[in-house]
User: Fold these one by one.
Assistant:
Number 1:
Amino acid sequence: MATGRVDLDGNPIKAMTICMIGAGGFIGSHLCEKLMNETPHKVLAVDVYSDKIKHLLEPSSTPPWADRIQFHRLNIKNDSRLEGLIRMSDLTINLAAICTPADYNTRPLDTIYSNFIDALPVVKYCSENSKRLIHFSTCEIYGKTIGSFLPKDSPLRQDPEYFVLKEDASPCIFGPIEKQRWSYACAKQLIERLIYAEGAENGLEFTIVRPFNWIGPRMDFIPGIDGPSEGVPRVLACFSNNLLRGEPLKLVDGGESQRTFVYIKDAIEAVLLMIENPARANGHIFNVGNPNNEVTVRQLAEMMTQVYTKVSGEAPPETPTIDISSKEFYGEGYDDSDKRIPDMTIINRQLGWDPKTSLWDLLESTLTYQHRTYAEAIKKATSKPVAS
Ligand code: NAD
Ligand code: UDP
């Protein structure tokens, strides 16, 4: 069926059925929303959780997408229904993964199984049934920059050749095996190589996405509110939690690592272009990030504190930040990526995509959401009388 939509080359786009694995997570929830609101495509949403897409599955009135999204609660580790769902679809998008750094060194087996072993049947079913696959990898696949091995005062550290990360040229540089932080990156690297080989040897039509710190509403959880009290989410949720509770933000190893952050809504535009432009996206690996939004983690903490003060009307914590060692925060075996600047040449050339939202603006909308969603719940949780 034609959709009235045209691709980047002016050809009509046909409505498709998409098997989205990990649809109930942060990225999946935004992608489902986009597909329901702006396209006629159908989604078979696969996950073990559905809280983040509840508003799409059980809306208060009948929305135009009512018959276009179906939730399938299943664990892809051990469910024979998976192949049937992939066969029923034109495209499979695999987002399922353990992808919080606090797990990489403390649950390395689960991390490796989730990011490599559990993804194997997905690749196999797509290849055997000649179905297109969009697989979510990570920017962490690049590991450390070449520049990080140069002397601290070397002028070459300022040369982009030594730090900009290019899909088709940069090496993947991980630490030693005892630094189990790299279990995730290594598992993601091997599944990328397997998908690439399936493309080369068996003709699998694939696209690999390497997200560079996508952030926004619904990312992870707030410990003790909608996730475990002792849980350690990714940095946006850690710092949001600190701000909501009026506590100092914890800077791991001084907060010197650098990251580029992209707004989830910008990044989802890139994924939709991949979905609807297979001729331009197949066979490619894409960095998806915002090279203009680079900060150190310390600068991120400072900016989040300023933005939160503005959106909440509350005074900043008396001690805004404290330093903590990575060993104390994450445990043995943690290591870090020093700097992550995506090269944008390939995505720009193939899909004409560029990120738009500045770091300040994306933090303002995200922290407005965090405050609206969690401030009351935190107040209630912290004012409960202690049992005697
Ligand atoms: P997320 O944890 O919010 O979402 C992952 C979803 O997969 C969760 O809902 C989880 O329940 C589901 N899942 C995991 N294992 C499953 C299984 N065995 N069966 C069924 N469902 C399962 O994470 P996210 O941020 O949305 O990330 C999605 C993908 O993007 C991951 O592959 C991740 O490695 C990659 N990625 C994301 C970022 C980012 O900036 N958010 C950065 C790098 C890579
Ligand atoms: N980090 C921090 N304090 C926190 C949480 C994270 O200083 O409370 C640091 C972490 O050590 C890393 C960066 O923030 O250098 C980004 O961490 P995140 O968990 O978002 O994932 P990563 O970008 O490393 O994949």
Note: Residues 97-372 form a domain with the Rossmann fold fold (CATH 3.40.50.720).
Number 2:
Amino acid sequence: MSDKSILVTGGGSGIGRAASLVFAREGGRVLVADLYLERASETAELIREAGGVALAVRTDVSREDDVRAMVDLAVAELGQLDCAFNNAGIGTAATESTNTRIVDMRQEAWDRTLAVNLTSVWHCMRAEIPHMVERGGAIVNTASIAARGALAGSAAYVASKHGVAGLTKSAAIEYAEDGVRVNAVAPGHIETPLLEQALARRGGELSPRNPVRRFGRAEEIAETVVWLCSDRSSFTTGELVTIDGGRLAR
Ligand code: NAD
């Protein structure tokens, strides 16, 4: 990652923070974006304390003007844009307090989930790709195992993550000849604040139903994300990499 400029959304917590730290540890310069500036700043501070280069910005990825300003800042401050990890997202617990089936879902919950999890990825890629065409670049989007199958009571989340998978593949085939690779990660249950919210909503019922018999750690997703952004995965594009402790292998 040395000499690479990297943008990470949702970098103030969980998987985004873990990836930001690994990008920086491998020599990358990182713009950490999050809806909450204090979270993004904390990640940037952790990177600087470890001797790396990072800056933070407040961005609501569901707003196109915010996304454009974030990408402009990355290019202005870091000089270029080599990689982007479009990771910010919300779980069902952020919009629905109960397990709600399709007929009973509120319009507001549907709209917010699709805006933050899916439309945001389109906004991000629209702003990022022009900086990568010709120079080359790599994009990783965060999908979920909910992009491979459904979870009952989470239709908006499931639809948003299936959408991320489709958008990833479309971008990969459209920009391959321009030297831009686009992949996605599909995490299983990973120990982050998002999972804690899901656990709280279900009264702690969620168990690691995978052969490994534990929840994953954010760092275990970060390693794959950094690999997908690096030249070591130069022939990998349009791929959805599942990282779930073998859960979907059953
Ligand atoms: P997290 O809640 O720890 O981190 C998400 C970060 O995104 C937070 O810092 C939050 O402030 C930020 N964010 C939320 N809305 C935003 C917005 N509109 N604009 C900018 N930033 C925003 O959660 P996490 O588990 O690290 O989740 C990261 C991604 O991984 C999400 O896309 C999530 O859907 C996905 N994912 C998580 C799991 C899991 O089990 N934790 C599993 C599969 C997929």
Note: The chain has a mean pLDDT of 96.
